[in-house]
Design a protein that fits this description.
The protein is α+β, with helices and mostly antiparallel strands. It has a single domain, classed as 2-Layer Sandwich (Pseudouridine synthase), CATH 3.30.2350.
Length: 307
C-alpha cells in the first residue's frame, strides 16, 4: 500500500486487525455497533478509512442482517464519526460490495471528506480493481467490455426467491469494464477488472456476457460454474484516489484471501500479486479499442455496488 505525493512514494500504515474504537462508547447510535465483525484496516487517518470486507459479510444492515454487517463493525470502531456524517450520506460509506465478494471498501470520517470523495466517484476519478477467477480466459488478453446494464426483479440459480438482478440490454444504463488476463490454465483463468462505471453486479454480468462467468457465481453462472468454488471468486484488491483533504494520491492494496489462494492452487493457476504486475500497467482505459461486446453510450452516473 502506497501514498504518493509529487511522484515520491512512501509506505502507509501496516495492516492490522480492527479492534473496538470509539463507536461502542457512544449512546443512541443509529447503527448498532458490533465488535464481533472482524476486518483488516488497510489505511486510516482522520479523514478516510479503508478496510477489507470479508466474504460472507453484507456491507450494510438489511433484512436478516440488522446487526452483523460491515457497517455494524465500522460503528464499533468509529461510530461517533460515522454517526455525525448521517444517514443521508450513508454514514460515510462511499460504495458497497456484494455479500460474497471480498475486498476493499472506503468510508469517509467527516462530511467534508464524504462530499469530496463522492464527487470523485461521480467524476470516475476513483480507480477500483478486482481479481476474478473465471471459467475460461476471454478471447482477447485485454479489452473493454461495453454493455448497458438493466436492473430487474427475478430468480436466479437454485434460489426460488425473487431478487434484484442485472442483464446486458440496449435500454439499460451505460456500463464499462476494462480487463486484462493475468494467468490461465486448462480449466480457469485469473482476470483483473477495473470498473469505469459502477452498476449493480457489473463485473459479474459483464464477464458472463463474454463467456467467462466467475467461478462460484450463484446468480449468473451455470450449475457447473456455481459448484466450482465455495463462494464467488471475486476480490476487490486495489483502490486508488486523491486524498479528500491533501490531494495526495492514496493507493491501497489487499492481498488474495486464503480461500481464493486455495482455489488458485486447485486450478493450477499462478497467483498474480498486485506489485508483480505494476510494470505492465493497469487494464486498458475506456478509450482503448479492444471492445468485446455491446455498444458505447455516454453517462456520468455512478452506482455503488458493482461487484
Amino acid at each position: 500500500m502506497w501514498i504518493t505525493r509529487r511522484a515520491r512514494p512512501r509506505r502507509a500504515r501496516p495492516v492490522r486487525d480492527a479492534g473496538p474504537g470509539d463507536g461502542s462508547k457512544m449512546a443512541n447510535l443509529t447503527i448498532q455497533p458490533n465488535d464481533r465483525i472482524t476486518f483488516k484496516v488497510r489505511y486510516e487517518d482522520e479523514d478516510v478509512l479503508v478496510v477489507v470486507k470479508p466474504a460472507g459479510v453484507v456491507t450494510v444492515p438489511g433484512l436478516g442482517h440488522e446487526d452483523d454487517s460491515l457497517l455494524n463493525g465500522l460503528f464499533a470502531r468509529a461510530g461517533a464519526k460515522l454517526q455525525n456524517i448521517g444517514k443521508s450520506r450513508d454514514f460515510g460509506l462511499l460504495h458497497r460490495l456484494d455479500r460474497e465478494t471480498s475486498g476493499l471498501v472506503i468510508a469517509a470520517l467527516s462530511v467534508r471528506s464524504y462530499d469530496a470523495l463522492r464527487a470523485a466517484f461521480e467524476k470516475r476519478e476513483v480507480e477500483k480493481y478486482y481479481w476474478a477467477v473465471v471459467r475460461q480466459a476471454p478471447k482477447r488478453s485485454k479489452g473493454v467490455i461495453r454493455g448497458s446494464l438493466l436492473e430487474y426483479e427475478g430468480r436466479a440459480g437454485d434460489d426460488p426467491r425473487k431478487k434484484k438482478l442485472a442483464r446486458v440490454a440496449s435500454n439499460g444504463k451505460p456500463a464499462l469494464t476494462a480487463y486484462r488476463v493475468l494467468s490461465a490454465s486448462a480449466n480457469a483463468a485469473v482476470v483483473e477488472c477495473r470498473t469505469i462505471t459502477g452498476r449493480l453486479h457489473q463485473v459479474r454480468v459483464h464477464l458472463e456476457s463474454i463467456g467467462c462467468p466467475i467461478l462460484g457465481d450463484d446468480l449468473y453462472g451455470p450449475r457447473a460454474v456455481r459448484e466450482a468454488a465455495p463462494r464467488l471468486a471475486l476480490h476487490a484488491h486495489r483502490i486508488a484516489f486523491s486524498h479528500p483533504r491533501t490531494g495526495a494520491r492514496v493507493d491501497v492494496r489487499a492481498a488474495w484471501p486464503a480461500d481464493l489462494r486455495g482455489l488458485l492452487k486447485r486450478f493450477r493457476l499462478p497467483r498474480p500479486d498486485a506489485d508483480e504486475f505494476e510494470g505492465r500497467g493497469p487494464p486498458p482505459a475506456a478509450s482503448d479499442s479492444g471492445i468485446e461486446r455491446g455498444h458505447e453510450v455516454n453517462d456520468d452516473a455512478v452506482g455503488d455496488e458493482d461487484a
